[in-house]
Amino acid sequence: MSGFILRLPILVDCRPIYARANFEEADFRIEQSKIVRVWGLPVSILVAIKDP
User: Distance (Å, rounded) from C-alpha 23 to C-alpha 18?
Assistant: First the structure.
């Protein structure tokens, strides 16, 4: 875990959000996905299309 998160746990919420699973459960098709790091936290970027 990055030093930023350890020093400021009140400002940064570290609970995971399962975006891919949530989109798929709502009948979206994931077209592209990428994981990047923002201030040491992994962040998912998704491009999804709603299935008819």
Answer: 9
